[in-house]
Structure formats: C-alpha cells, structure tokens
C-alpha cells in the first residue's frame, strides 16, 4: 500500500511540475525555429474567438483608454473577445517582452509599437493586404519592407524639434527663431551672456537623442536612404558631412551652452527643468507638447525645427511607424486584422491616440483634435515638411543595426564628458555598425 | 536503506532535482550551446560560428571594462560589507532596550527591492536631488554622483554596501550567538582586553559565518545589474557597465543573443573559478581555526 502511495505521489508531483513548465498553447501556434510557420493564409471563423492584444501603456496611453476601445470593439463585433496584455515594464518598446512571448509560443495576435523589421525577420508578422482601408493612409508605402506592409499606422510624430522659452528669448533680445547652425550659436551666445542656460539635455537616452536630432537633419535632408546606403557601404559616419555636423554639436558643448550636471539627471528631471524655466531651449520630440499642455508655468513655449547648416527645414521622426501589427501564426487572422484596423482607423480610436500622445493624423482626410497653441505650431511646421525619415534607431531607408541607439548615447555622453575628438567618436559608430551587422 | 525508503527519498528529492534540472542545468546547457552559433534570439534560422564569439569577446574592450567594473564593485563591496557586518554585529550582540530596534534598522534596506532603492537614491543623489540641494544651501558645489565616471562606479558600490550590510549583520549575529561564553570567561581570567578577546576568540569562531558572508557577497556582487539599470543605464559612456548589464544589453538591445551567451559563459567560468577557490580557501581556514 505504502509503495503504491509513494509511486502515485511521485507521479502526481512530477506531472504537476511538467505541467507548470509548459507554456500556454492557446491563441497562437508555437514558433519553433526549426519549423517556420506557414504562410498565415488560413481562413478561420471570426465568431466566438478570443484574440490576444499586446497593448503599450504610457502615462498618456492609459489602461482606461484601451479598455474603453476594446469594449466598443467587442460590442460592435459580437463573437470576438479581446484579451489585453502588456509588458511588465516600459523599456522604450515592447520588443524584449514580445521576443520572450515568441520564444515561448505565446506571441499575441495583435502587437503594438513593436520594431516591425525585427519581427518580420523572425517571420512572425502577417502581411497586411493593401485594401481600401489601408489606401486611406497617406504615404503608407513608407513603412513597407521588401514591398510588403506589416503594420497599420497613420500617424506622424515629428522628433527633431527644439522647444523654447519665449520669455527667456525675449530677455536675451532674440527676435526670431534660429534656422541655421550659425543662428543657433548666436542665440546661445546671447542667452549665455545673460546668464541663461541656452540648451537642456540629460544623461540617459536623452543625450543620444539630442545629439541625433541636432546633427542628423543636415545629413538626411540630402540622403533619405542613409542607413540603407550604410548597409551597402556607400556612406560612413566618418564622411565629411557627418564630421562637420558632429563638430558643430561638439562646439555647442565646448562653448558651455548645455546645462551643468547634465550627465547626472535623466529625461524626467530635464523636462521639469525646462518647465520650471531653468533653460531656454529643449530639443525633444512632439510628445513633450502633451506634458507642456498640462503644466503650470508663467511663460509661453514655442517650437522650431532643429537648424541645419543652410537653414533648410527638414524634420525627422516617425512616418506611419509603430502602430499595430498582426501575428502570422494567429489562429484568428481575420479577427486580429479587423481589431488592428479598428485601433488605428476608427475615428474615435485614431483621435484618442493622437491627442493622448500629441501625434498628428496621416490619413488622406486627417483628423483634427483639440490642439494646444504649441501643438498647433508643431502642426504648422509639419505642413511645410516633406515626408519624414527616422533617425537614431529608426528607419532611414532601412532600419539600422540593432542597438545603435546605445552607441549614439555613448558618443553623446563622451562629448558631454569633454571628449572633443570628433573623428574618434564618429568612428566608434562605424565600428559598432560593422561589429553588429551580422 | 530498504526499498520503501528508497522510494520515499526519490519522492522527496525528485521535485528539487527536477526544478534544478529544468531551471538551472538546461538553461546553462542552452547558453553554452547558443554561444557557438550566430543567433539573434528571434530569427527562425541560425548558423554555426565555432569559437568566433569567444574570440571576439576576448578582444572586446567594453567587455574588459565591464569585467574591471564588476571586479571592483565585488572586491570593495565584499570587503567593506564584511568589515561593517562584523563591527555592527559585535555592537548589536548585547541586551539593551534599543538593540532590537537597531537590528531592524540595519536589516530594513534588505527588505526593499533593489529597483525601489535605486529610484529612492536617484532622487537623493541626482544633480538636482535632495543631497545636492542641501550641499548648495550650505555653500558647497553640487556633486555629479552619476555624471563623473569614477564617482558613478563608487556610488553604485556604496549603494551595494548600504543595502547588503544588514543581511551580513544577521549572519554574523547568528555566528556570535553560537560562541560559548565560557571561552570569554577563560580569556578574561587570563587578563585579555576587548581587542584581544575579539582577535583570539570572536573572529576565529566566526569563521563559518565569515565563509558564508564572503561567498554570498562575492557571488551576489558579481551579478550586479539592477542598480546599474536604474541609476546610470551603464553610463556615462559605458563607465558603469557590469558584465551582467552588458550581457542583457548585447543580447536584447543589439539582438546578438549568441554573443551575449559567450559573455555569460565567460562570466560563469570566472565566477565559478573564483567562488570555488574562495570556498576551498575559506573552508581550510575554518578547519585550521576551529
């Protein structure tokens, strides 16, 4: 009896442990590297199905925002249930989380804000058919990979912007916003002479971002395929145009135009510094205008495009990037595609995401939302701008090698630490590229 | 041992062995396996790379720097935590109205998660933080705790010491309570002063606790990740990157899972050799002293 009891208990414990080790097999098929998934053209019944949606939660895009849209989608599409999941931490993008889900065979049916190229390379995303819905989006071809579309996005997110404190500009006698490098240097000198900190940045990712938005527009305005050309070894970071642009930035640092203790504060802190009036210019993406609209301060904020050498305006940023994508291994691709389209193209959902994150509609009939005066200024800058390309770790003809943003940060931090050897710093970007281009 | 006992032991051992096998041995095997390939951690295919990842890591300056930073934090934190641990344990090893309160105060930092502690200290030590505001009000210059490469490494080391001391105190307190009081009475009769009592009785008798604390601190510090990720993100300019931080960064940011696996294997080998050597040395020391 005792023997049988012991055997049964052993089997029970072992089976429980094995069950605990197993993954959840519902929703999507396992992504076995040895067995690439099929072409995802299965037809499935869209009734009584559950799709898993990986949402992207930020201070602006809240759980309540998603849940209200999901409730509406479910009531308009009886038979389709949406289960919302989210990464455990905001690491800038959900890629690490999605990679672990893909490895465990739990890749969601709909993903948001992922690095599309990476998951296309992993054969994990469904090709989006170009139908009348997709044709409502301006320039939807911008995000195509090898002539195929894998994400649904109709938003413009300008990033190479400099927000400025109108009161401090007036105190320093600056009458117009700088358009050229020389004008920016002159404005910074006037501000410094008045004891005002001309430029603000921080030591975390903000350092690399600031370096990139202040140097890249001059390069990419003349070559909108720069990263694709870099893959083909037609261009390098040590080319004269990059060296000149990086030298301009290094001189801004050398001349003491940036805030003191820059490497000892982070993005959250530097945003507060600007909103407290402790600096005149703050290079940042359009999302800052959402924080600005909710802040209390005794000065007005204006915005201009980061200057280029000759004064040509060329904004960099997201052009239909991110957005929603559908898993190739989804058991319910039609329902998943329907939901992804709803989240981006439904007027209420579209307006919601634009307003929450201070984005701009890229529909052929763009949706307007209640913009603050600052957001209206950004919108007007965008109207004068041709389609944008990305920068740093975003697509400029092609998505760059993974992790290049870490090397941008390193270069920018080196410059802020006083390393003014521009050629060496730019060469480190080339070295990173070559080493990681595998 | 009869047959029934064997079944009973099997029953008791099997969950532990299975967990150890699934969550430790299998991942280590996979780590070593992937380190010989070129895999980005996501693509359906990967190719054999032989020893190329190991050769590349051997010449990688950033990995060399990370190894130095990790060893610096490990050696300094292990030494200082143990010196402070013994000192505070001796001070707290007496009956008094406030003793339990002091023990709780020292142990408290360990109850907080490293990430939470990181954020708290960040708000204290950042350039616009509480401490710098105080320094400025007292007429001093603000200090760049995270902006100066050397100071940033020291700051992370200090926080590791601050958070780990409480645990080590508890280990030493347990060790102190196992020392027979008769030994102290005997040396007191022989005229030994407090320092001589510590040197000839307390410290040698603490040898098992000393071994445990040194190994605990050493292996823990070699895996330093959370504080770096919260406080400096490895910056400025990579100055505070530890091996564990670099393994994660290379594997998940640069998508070079195989290369990061080779870094992790190096780390495993280094930690194993040092930890085993330390354990053997400290066990022999225990045998000599006790």
UniProtKB/TrEMBL annotation, chain A:
Coarsely, its chief localization is membrane
Asked whether the UniProt record includes Heme among its keywords, one would answer no
What InterPro entries does the annotation carry?
Answer: Bact_solute-bd_prot1, Maltose/Cyclodextrin-bd, SBP
Which keywords appear in this protein's UniProt record, sorted alphabetically?
A: Cell membrane, Lipoprotein, Membrane, Signal, Sugar transport, Transport
Q: Which family does it belong to?
A: Belongs to the bacterial solute-binding protein 1 family.
Q: Which Gene3D superfamilies match?
A: Periplasmic binding protein-like II
| ATP-binding in keyword set | no
Q: Name one GO molecular function term.
A: carbohydrate transmembrane transporter activity
Q: Cellular component GO terms, alphabetically?
A: plasma membrane
The membrane topology of this protein is: Lipid-anchor
A Pfam family: SBP_bac_1
According to the record, the signal peptide region is: 1-19
Localization per record: Cell membrane
- Designated name of the protein: Maltodextrin-binding protein
Organism of origin is Paenibacillus roseus
Automatic annotation (TrEMBL), chain B:
Domain ABC transmembrane type-1 residues, every copy? 67-280
Please give the name of this protein. Answer: Sugar ABC transporter permease
Q: Which Gene3D superfamilies match?
A: MetI-like (1.10.3720.10)
What are the TM regions of this chain, as residue ranges? 12-36, 66-92, 104-124, 151-174, 201-219, 263-282
Species assigned in the record? Paenibacillus roseus
**Keywords, alphabetical:** Cell membrane, Membrane, Transmembrane, Transmembrane helix, Transport
Q: Where in the cell is it found?
A: Cell membrane
The UniProt entry lists membrane topology as: Multi-pass membrane protein
Q: Which PANTHER family match?
A: ABC TRANSPORTER PERMEASE PROTEIN (PTHR30193), DIACETYLCHITOBIOSE UPTAKE SYSTEM PERMEASE PROTEIN NGCF (PTHR30193:SF41)
**Which GO terms are recorded in the biological process aspect for this UniProt protein?**
transmembrane transport
| Keyword DNA-binding recorded | no
Q: Which domain of life is it from?
A: Bacteria
Determine if Iron is one of this entry's keywords.
Answer: no
């Amino acid at each position: 009896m005792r023997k049988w009891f012991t055997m049964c208990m052993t089997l029970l414990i072992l089976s429980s442990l094995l069950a605990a080790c197993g993954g959840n097999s519902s929703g999507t098929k396992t992504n076995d590297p040895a067995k690439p998934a099929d072409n995802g053209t299965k037809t499935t019944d869209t009734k009584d199905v559950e799709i898993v949606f990986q949402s992207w939660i930020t201070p602006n895009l809240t759980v309540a925002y998603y849940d209200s849209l999901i409730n509406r989608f479910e009531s308009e599409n009886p038979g389709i249930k949406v289960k919302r999941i989210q990464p455990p931490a905001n690491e800038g993008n959900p890629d690490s989380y999605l990679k672990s889900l893909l490895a465990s065979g739990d890749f969601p049916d709909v993903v948001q804000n992922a690095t599309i190229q990476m998951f296309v390379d992993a054969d994990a995303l469904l090709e989006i058919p170009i139908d009348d819905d997709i044709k409502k989006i301006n320039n939807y071809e911008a995000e195509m990979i090898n002539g195929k579309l894998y994400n649904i996005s109709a938003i413009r997110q300008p990033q190479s912007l400099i927000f400025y404190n109108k009161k401090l500009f007036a105190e320093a006698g600056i009458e117009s916003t700088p358009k050229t490098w020389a004008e920016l240097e002159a404005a910074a000198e006037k501000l410094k002479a008045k004891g005002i900190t001309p430029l603000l940045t921080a030591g975390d990712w903000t350092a690399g971002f600031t370096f990139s938005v202040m140097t890249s527009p001059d390069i990419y305005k003349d070559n909108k395929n720069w990263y694709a050309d870099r893959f083909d070894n037609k261009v390098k970071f040590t080319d004269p145009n990059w060296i000149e642009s990086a030298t301009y930035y290094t001189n801004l640092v050398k001349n003491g135009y940036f805030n003191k203790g820059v490497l000892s504060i982070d993005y959250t802190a530097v945003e507060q510094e600007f909103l407290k009036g402790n600096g005149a210019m703050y290079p940042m993406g359009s999302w800052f205008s959402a924080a600005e609209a909710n802040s209390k301060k005794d000065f007005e904020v204006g915005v201009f495009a980061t200057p280029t050498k000759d004064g040509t305006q060329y904004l960099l940023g997201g052009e239909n990037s991110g957005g929603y994508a559908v898993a190739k291994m989804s058991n319910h691709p039609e329902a998943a595609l329907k939901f992804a389209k709803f989240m981006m193209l439904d007027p209420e959902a579209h307006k919601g995401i634009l307003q929450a994150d201070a984005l701009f509609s890229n529909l052929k009939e763009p949706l307007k939302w209640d913009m603050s005066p600052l957001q209206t200024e950004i919108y007007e800058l965008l109207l004068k701008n041709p389609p944008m390309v990305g920068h740093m770790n975003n697509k400029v003809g092609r998505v760059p090698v993974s992790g290049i943003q870490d090397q941008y940060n390193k270069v920018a931090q080196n410059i802020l630490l006083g390393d003014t050897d521009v050629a060496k710093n730019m060469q480190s970007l080339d070295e990173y590229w070559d080493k990681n281009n595998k | 041992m009869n047959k029934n006992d064997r079944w009973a032991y099997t029953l008791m051992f099997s969950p532990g062995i299975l967990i150890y096998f699934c969550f430790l041995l299998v991942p280590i095997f996979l780590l070593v396996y992937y380190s010989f390939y070129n895999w980005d951690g996501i693509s359906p295919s990967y190719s054999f790379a032989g020893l190329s990842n190991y050769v590349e890591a051997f010449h990688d300056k950033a990995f060399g720097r990370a190894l130095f930073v990790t060893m610096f934090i490990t050696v300094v934190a292990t030494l200082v935590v143990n010196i402070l641990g013994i000192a505070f344990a001796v001070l707290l090893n007496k009956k008094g109205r406030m003793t339990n309160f002091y023990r709780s105060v020292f142990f408290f930092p360990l109850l907080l998660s490293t990430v939470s502690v990181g954020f708290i200290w960040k708000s204290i030590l950042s350039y616009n933080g509480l401490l710098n505001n105080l320094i400025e009000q007292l007429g001093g210059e603000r200090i760049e705790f995270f902006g100066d490469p050397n100071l940033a490494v020291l700051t992370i080391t200090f926080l590791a010491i601050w958070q780990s001391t409480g645990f080590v105190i508890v280990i030493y307190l347990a060790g102190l309570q196992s020392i027979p009081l008769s030994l102290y009475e005997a040396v007191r009769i022989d005229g030994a002063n407090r320092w001589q009592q510590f040197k000839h009785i307390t410290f040698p008798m603490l040898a098992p606790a000393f071994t445990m604390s040194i190994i605990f601190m050493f292996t823990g510090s070699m895996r330093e990740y959370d504080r770096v990720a919260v406080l400096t993100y490895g910056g400025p300019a990579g100055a505070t990157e530890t091996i564990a931080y670099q393994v994660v960064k290379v594997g998940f940011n640069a998508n070079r899972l195989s290369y990061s696996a080779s870094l992790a294997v190096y780390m495993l080998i280094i930690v194993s050799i040092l930890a085993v050597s330390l354990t053997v040395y400290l066990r022999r020391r225990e045998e000599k002293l006790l």
